[in-house]
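Sorry to interrupt, but I need a hand with the structure work. I would like you to pick a protein and set down its sequence and fold. Please put the record directly below this note.
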Amino acid sequence: MLRRISQEIVCKAAVQITRSPDHPIAWVNTTAEVAHLSATISLMVRDNLSGFVLAGGKSTRMGRDKAALALHGRTLLETSLAALRDVARQVFILGSPQLYDRYGTAIPDIFPGCGPLGGIHAALSHSATQFNLIVAVDTPFVSSKFLDYLAGRALNSSALVTLPEIGDYLEPVCAVYSRDFLAIAEQALQRGDHKITPLLPQRQTLVIQEAELKKFAFTAEMFENLNTPEDLERARRRTRGESE
């Protein structure tokens, strides 16, 4: 089903650009036409993708709400929202409306206190799209270019979950989830299981390995997350171009 949806997106885009009164079926064979087709497909992908920032963590080691921390002139939450808005037409915040509604629409957990899986479940319960891009608020170096690539790989597959793997470690909070993953998440939460990785269906999970990422100049450092004040200071030095 997911592969059929993604194929329909590409076919509809191709029809829009190739049909004309004089040439009802024409080949896309110029640079301008290819660029137009690419842009059309991108817009249609945006319409089939929702973005969500996981912002409701406890921030125990940081000692304060990570979403509100400042880095390169804006909060971590604002940075994540900006990256997602370059890729998805609708973007939401997974966390308390009382804390985050001033930044955008915030969605509380249906299963509170269950970690990122609770947020993913809330996202899929709320979503009106088949594909859903989830990003953790404490990974400010994840670029919109990478998110666009990740979304494209997801929409061109039949996977329930599409995610990168860095150093033998899967990144389940920088991933695209099909809405069909909702039942898996809900059943796990009802059992009291909160870990995401064991829930990933082996034959329906697309893992983008580090070697593939390197081909497109996506580095492992992009996934550096900020858990402690020391991590934050190191990230601030990085944005200033200072060496360790």
